[in-house]
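Consortium newsletter contribution from the modelling node. Members have asked for a concrete example of what our holo predictions look like. Here is one, prepared for the MIG complex that several groups have been discussing at recent meetings.
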Amino acid sequence: MFGALINYEQKEQTITLHYEKQSVQIQVLTNQIINVFVPFRTADHRSKAIEGNKECPTAYKLHRTEDGLVLTTDSLICKIYDNFLIDFYNADGVLLCADYRGKRIPRFTLQESFIAFIKQEGHEVDTAGSRDYPVQCVKQLEKGDCIYGLGDKTGVLNKRYYEYENWNSDIPDPHEDSFKSLYKSIPFFITLKENGVYGIFYDNTFKSYFNFGKENDAYYSFGSDDGNLDYYFIGGNSMPEIVTNYTYLTGRMPLPQKWTLGYHQSRWGYDSEETFRDLAAKFKEHRIPCDALHFDIDYMERYKVFTWNKERFTDAHTLLSDLKKQGIKAVTIIDPGVKVEEGYPMYEEGIKEGYFAKTEDGSVYVNAVWPGDAVYPDFGDPDVRKWWGEHLNFYTDLGVGGIWNDMNEPASFNGPLPNDVIFTDEDKASTHGEMHNVYGHNMAKATYEGLKKLTGKRPFIITRACYSGSQKYTTAWTGDNQSLWTHLRMAIPQQCNLGLSGMSFVGTDIGGFGADTTPELLVRWIEAGCFSPLFRNHCAKGSMNQEPWLFGDEVLAIYRKYVELRYTLLPYFYDLCRECEQTGLPVIRPLVLHYENDTRVRNLNDEFLVGEHLLIAPVVEQGAVKRMVYLPEGVWYDYWTHEAYQGRQYYLVDAPLDKCPIFVKAGTILPKAPVQMYVGETPNPPLILEVYPGTGTYKHYQDNGEDFAYRNGEYNEYLFRTEGKGEVKITKVHEGYAEYPEIIVNHINK
Ligand code: MIG
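And here is the predicted structure:
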């Protein structure tokens, strides 16, 4: 590839190898993370996902063999052959990941005559069986390898045999399993092998391609149109360790404000003060807890961001403070596109300062979104981020509680942005081709930093587009799904893979965004969706309204039951967020994360775990009133009936319309709270511990749920222990916050 090795040099934890045609750097970051960097495009090694220096002082050995170098850390062995083939082994010498040596042979090619034939009917035909990219890497696949991650891609949990692309895309059609890309680009995947596991983070923001054995069962490939070959090999003894290492590198979700874990109601089309007042009243009337109402683009004046429509919202400030008195926070949408209009401050200021993306000739680049002709803030420029962030006082002064960033792929109505539009990469000019996939990331960063400064609270941001590392700044939703059973089903692997890819605080539009929901679909969606960290019912203008009281008493009662269930479980969700901040482990987890040796969970698409203790098997089939549930090892208890089940077996369980099958692991100490109409309705509620038979320990976290005081020690941490003897030992391991008025212990099946 690069010719023969001429020589190499070693400087601290970086080894530079000089081949005839190319120099390459191998850097040891930790004993489990090794970076391979081939500076095809720039010698400057920078990352948009990784912030700060992640190199830990790590002892390693390097020795020369006949045909290459062998680099050894405590956990990994990396063989770098003189022809630049690289293989990774674990410390026991088990091969984890080898560069592919064979010839690339596409399993499937179409004959020219056939292509011409089927094109007649207007079919699009993918003629290339195998593709080469300017930057690429081909690695060996082995029998049994399963591949997870890659963010929000559609389809099944295990990505083996599928191919994907990373190019943040707003595609209005119903999301199909066959889609190659969606809104987010997270070039990280985990390969689970029969005898090991590893992760690869391919840190390249250009359009990138992943073919996980679709081309040929013997290998997989990743590559891009441009940029450097820059990937991190991530080792670890288990899937959770891989996720922890990946989030060590790219960052973790900071603890959110507690209310953000409550219920959110949204709809594109809520367009007046009366609508919002009425919604708040209806939630009270129907006794459905609610913490947030979302203001979609209809609140703006002619879709101009940083404005309010004064006709339909005569006094936004009073509206928002009246809502707040009822415990309801406002979340406002902000799109990046700024309307081209003289006299409009955001436009004029941005033009004056040169804050918008430009064409090659230096003029401001104009496309169109909701407000008509619009320009794109250049969020890769720190000054632009600061400017945007400071302007958020427009919202925070009114009492807005969170910002919802939409259309930040970025979307455009007048055709795609050309790749050569000029955007900034921190301190240098770059292109749309390089910055497209991080546009949403940088917008989120601007929003996070702005809100943090303005409010001192933990910023609450929702984004549609993102890149690896965005979890440091923002939560995310999965964009425009539809009211389809297939989309309810897809929500499970999608959220699981987002979680494995570092994005923990995620959710789907409950009930479905496009198309029209049905009473049954809405019910099954709330039953599954009440376990999504981002718990929001949202739908599109023009589609059927989805407020829970529109479908009769039965639906309303079931809906309330699951919103209430969520509120009783808030201490558990909050603990999971704390755990995520510390370890990167997501809230929603595929079973394979904790039971990787159980082959029966590797392709399980319709169950998930919430943390380690709850297993959820929602009904995702129209008409079903029973479903098959697989329980992994151990003993599990039906949450509703407390019946015990032995794991490693399949069961057919009852699931009438009002029942979402939920199982609790033996030895669980589940922290719960009384139902409140919104978080904080009761300032200091008691803690309820629901103790399941078996032995177990549980770490519980408590703080003010709002600001950063916890970083100065203002929190309590408890350790609970049960030995199945009807007793719970409670130890306070950190003390720095007000006590619970009471801790109530409820034993299950005592
Ligand atoms: O092109 O703001 O995904 O949640 O309601 C539509 C209107 C623009 C797309 C978002 C959706 C939102 C809608 N937006």
